[in-house]
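Q&A log
Question type: sequence-to-structure
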Amino acid sequence: MTELSTTPRRSQAAFGHACAKLRALRPEHPRVYAVAAMVEQGKRRWWPLLGGAREGRIELMYQRHAAEMISADIAAEVVATALIHAVIGRVSALLVVAGRAWDPGVENLWIHTDNDGGIDWAGVVDTTIRVLDGDRLAGRPGVVALPCEEAMYVWLAHRCEPALALIQASMARCSGLSRRRFWLLVGESIAGASTYVPDLARTDATVGARRGQGLLAALTDRGLPVRPTARVA
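Response status: OK
Response body:
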């Protein structure tokens, strides 16, 4: 095992099943929604979100995109959206189709970049999967059951917020992307997953929408402006 290993391989079956389901959503682009188990990966083009942010990798990514695009503002949103997807968009896809989630905590996430410096994959060190009480995976190795959907939303919001806040602070420093716009991009990522992923998976769209709204509500309860402000005529 590599130094990244914290979970025995026998406990990764549930994680492997979850990622297989997500890879099947877009067979031609299997990395769009799935994540990797870092115990199975080398370090080439991988960097930990927490350490990488502190080392200026997010700023470097923005500078590279800004130099290649006609608008620095567009570059900022492109980079922010890719990072947001790595943190919460991918796990939202699993949430809406299966009511399950891996740990998107800031210390658990790694980022993979392609040859052009863009994000094309994400990984986790701890592959433990959270499920709802009564899920057929409950009780198996590498699985933790939560009592209800609301508990899942609260736990995910709690785990995602530090990672997202770290990205937001980095983007604000290097690009001037506003806090309000950043958190709206977070909301759009969740809404996109809850809209399109059930269609790709041929699962219940109503259930997917409910779960997406539940996660948005949990983030809103934490004081995060992920929903557009209603305008009054």
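Response note: Residues 1-7 have pLDDT under 50 and may be disordered.
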